[in-house]
Amino acid sequence: MTVLEYMKDNLLFLDGGMGTLLQERGLQPGELPERWNVSHPDIITDIHKAYYDAGSNVVSTNTFGANCLKFPGEELETLITAAVKNVRAAQEISSNPRPKFVALDIGPIGKLLKPYGDFDFEEAVSVYAETVKIGVKCGVDLIFIETMNDCYDTKAAVLAAKENSDLPIFVSNAYSEDGKLMTGASPSAMTAMLEGLGVDAIGANCSLGPAQLKGVVDEYLEVSSLPVLLKPNAGLPRTENGKTVFDVYPDEFSDLMADYIRSGVRIAGGCCGTTPDYIRATYEKTTDITPVPVTDKGRTVISSYARTVVFGTAPILIGERINPTGKKKFKEALREHDIEHILSVGSAQVDRGADVLDVNVGIPEIDEPALLTEVMYELQAIIDLPLQIDTTDPIAMERALRRYNGKPMINSVNGKDEVMKEIFPLVKKYGGLLVCLTLDEAGIPDTAEERIEIAKKIIKRAEEYGIPRKDLIFDTLAMTVSADDHAALATLDSLRYIRHELGCNTSLGVSNVSFGLPQREIITSGFFMMAMAYGLSAAIMNPSSNEMMKAYYSFKTLKGIDANCTDYITNIDKFAVSTLTAGPVSKEPSADDGLSDLQRAIVKGMKEQAAKLTTALLGTTDALDIVSEQIIPALDVVGKGFEAKTMYLPQLLMAAEASQFAFDQIKAKMAESGSSGPTRGKFVIATVKGDIHDIGKNIVKLILENYGFEVIDLGRDVPPETVLEAVIEHHAPLCGLSALMTTTVPAMEDTIKLLRKDAPWCKVCVGGAVLTQEYADMIGADFYGKDAMATVRFACSVSEE
Amino acid sequence: MIESHIRVLPYEPSALPPVDTNEVWRYSGCREIPTDEAMLKLMDEVLAECSRSARGQVVYGRYKEFPFETSSKGLSELLSGCSEVIIFAATVGLDFDRLVGRYKRVSPSRALLIGALGAERVEALCDTFCSTFKGATTRYSPGYGDLDISAQKEIFNLLRVEEKIGISLNESLLMTPTKSVTAIFGIKEGAEPLKGHDCSKCGLKECEFRRQS
After folding, report:
1. Domain limits, chain B
2. Among A18, A75, A279, B154, which residue's CB has the most CB atoms within a 10 Å radius?
3. Which residues from B are below 8 Å from A744, CB to CB?
C-alpha cells in the first residue's frame, strides 16, 4: 500500500523532533547532526523506532541539512544512504503493526535566492535535485520538503522533486508570528502555488507552538483542496540551567492537535522540542476521530510570493500596458533593453489600482524567451502583484513559468489541437490559471454557439491532461463593433453561458471593441460595464483610463459587493478629474523670493503645481524658453542651496521630480510639433560589480537628466566589460561609477583601467559613501563627485569643452 | 534544528519603539528638519505606508570568550573587563528593499525616505534588543573603527545567520535584506547604558551622517 492510498481513509501520523533528542545524546553545538547517521547509526535508529512505536506512520530521514553545499563530494551520498537505512532498520524492529513509511527529509539550503539574495534559482533546483536523486535511489516512499521559509525556494525544491522522482511530495512551510513566510507569502499564496505544482499534501511546521499556528491552520483548511499537514514545535523555547526547554507539554500539545484534526487536519506530527511522548499522546487522543474528508474548494486563484488574487466575485483588473502593440515608445524600450521604462509602466499601473499585470514583450527582433523571463523577474523584484505571462512562443512561456515566483496567469491557449498539445503539458507541470481563447483552426466563430462549443472542447481536453476547469478562464474575444454591429453581442452571450452554465471564469481584452470609433474610451468603458453585468470575472484593460476605473467602481457598488459603498467613496475622487493638468491652479501666496510661480513650485517640490503651471505657460511661451528661463534657473537655486547646505538631499530630489513633471508637459508639447529637445551629451552610469546599492547612482542619474544629459543607466552589480561596451557603443564622453563599500572599490579600479585602455576619450567620475578625493586619485578617476550636484557641475564643464 | 547557543527572537512591528522622525531625516541627509509643506507631506505618506513594514528578527549567541580571531584594538578595548560577549545579527526584513526598488523609479525622494526609515527601524531594533541585557556596552560592527569587514563572514558562520533569519551575504560582504545589522557588545557590571550609535570612534570624519554631539 502506498502512502497516498493509506491517507485516503486514514489520519497519517508523522514523527517529532530530532535535534533536541540528539543533543541529549551528546550532539555538540556546531556538530552536524546528519553525520550521526554514519557515526551513531544505533542512536538514530533508536530514535526512529521510538517514533514508530509511538504511532508514527511516517518517519523522516535525519537529512534536514543534507545537501551538496554543506556536504560536497561523496559524503552526501554516504550520509543519505545511511539515513534511509537507519529508518528502514527502525521499521523492522518497531512493534507498531500499522503501515510504516519513510520520508526523505529535505530542509532549506539556507541561501536567499535572487533577486534579493545572490543564489540563482536554477542553482537551487540542482542542489535539491542531488539530494532527491540519492533519496530515490535509496528507495524512500515519499519526499518531505519542510521548514521552508521562502516561496521561491520552496518552488525550487518542489521542481527538483518532480523532475527527479514520481514519489508523493509533502510540503511544509515555516511561518512567522504574523502568519507569513519570511519573504511574505501567506498560507493561501502557498496553497495556490503548491496546488498548481501538483504536490500531494501541504501545511506548516516549526517556528511556533500549536496554539500560535491557529490562524495559519485555519487558513489552510479554508482554502486547500489538498490534505493539510501540521507539525508544530512544543511551544516556544527558553533556557533553563543552560538547557533548552519548551513550554508546551505532551498533554496540552495533543489536546490542541486533536482539535485541529477534528477541524480537518489530516497529517499530524511535531517539530522542535517534541518527543515520542508528544506523538503517542496525539495518536492516542485522535485514533477514534473519523478523518474530515478533503474536498475540492473550487477556487480559481493566482498568486505572487506575497499576494493571492481570487476570481469569481469582484471583477479583477489586469493591467494591459506592458505590451508593445501599438506603442512606439514601448517597442523602442524593448529594442534598447530599457528595463527601467518597462518597470515604470508596471509601477504606474499598480498605483492606479491594477490587481494583476499582463506581461507581453513580443516583438520580432528580440530574444523573447530571455527578455520575457528577465522582465517578469525584474517586475517581481519590485511589485508584489501576480502577473499574467502573455506570449505565443511556447519556449518563452516555459522559461517564464519556470522562473515565476508563485502561480501565474497564462495567456493563452485556444481550441487549436496543436496549441493545446503544446500548452497543456506546461500548465500541468508548473501550474497556472490558463486563459482560453474561444477560437480554433477555423478562426474566430461569428456566433456565440460556436464559441461555446470550442470552450467545451477545451475543458474536455484540459481534463485529459489533469487540468481542472477551475484553472481555466475563458476569453470569448471582444471584436471590433465598428466592423460588425453584432460583434459585442456574440462575445457577451457566449461569455454569459460559459460563466453561468459551464461555471468557468471569464476574461476579456475589452479595448478591442472600440477600434475605429471616435472617443474610444467611452464605448470601451460602456462595453466593460455591460460585460461585468453579463458575468465577466476579469478584464485586460488600461488602468490609467479614468472612464474604465469609474465603470469598475460603479459596477462593484451597484452589484452589491462594495459594503456601504466604501470603495466607491474612498477611491472615486481620484478618477473623477480627467487629466493631471485639468482644473485650476491653486493660488499660492506669492512670496518675496524673486522666483516666478513655476520656479517656486519646482523649488518647493510641488509636482502637480509644476505640471499645471507649465501647461499654462506653454500657451504663451516657447517650450525651450521655459526650460532655459524657468526650469534650469529653479534647479540652480536648489543646487546652490544644496551646496551651501541650506537645502538637503530629499529637497533636491523633490525639486528634481517636480521639474520632471514640468519637462513631461514640455516633451508632450514638443512631440506634437515633432521636434526633440537639445541634449548635453551622453553619460554612462553604473554601480560597479559586486555592489548592489544604487540609490545614490539613481539620484545622480535623475539630476543629470534634469540638466539635459542623456543618461545610459546600466544598473547595479555591473561588470567592467559591460561598462566598456556601453561607453564604446554610445561613444559616451562621460562615465560615472558608484561604489558603496571598500570591498567593491577594487572593481571600480578595474573598470577605470579597462576604460583607459579601450575608451581613452571617456572622462570618468566616481562617487559613493566610502570614496574620498584621495581614493579617487589613487584609482585614477578624472573626478571625485562628493555628491550629485558636484557630478552635475563636472559633467556640464566637460560637455561645454 | 536547534543549536543550543544560538537564539532567534522575532519582533513584531508593535514591539519596536515609535519611529523617531528626526533620525529618519538625518539618515536621508538632512542636518536640519525641513519645514516645507511638500517635504512634511511626503514624510507623512511614507510613515503611513511603511512604518509597520519592519518585521524584526534577531539571531544571537552568548559567549564567555570571544569566539573568533580579530586584531581589532577598538573591539578588545570595548570588551576588556566584560563577563560575557554577545554577538548578533538583526534585520527588519525585505519590505524596505521592495519598496525602495519600486519607488526609486517613480519617486526617488520617496525611495530615499523609505530607505532612511528602514535604517532608523533596524537601529531601533538593535537598541531594543541590546537594552534587554543589563550592563550592555555600546556595540561594535564589522567595518566600524578598526574591525575589518571580513568579520562579517565569521559572524555569519558562527550564528548561521542565513538559515536562522534569512539574511544573506554576498561576495562583497553586503547583506540582503539591506536593512540589516551585525554587531558585537559585552556585558560589564555597571556599564553605562548607551543609546544608539557612537560616532566618536569612527575615522570617517567627513561622513554626511556623523552625529555632531
Report:
1. 6-187
2. A279
3. 172
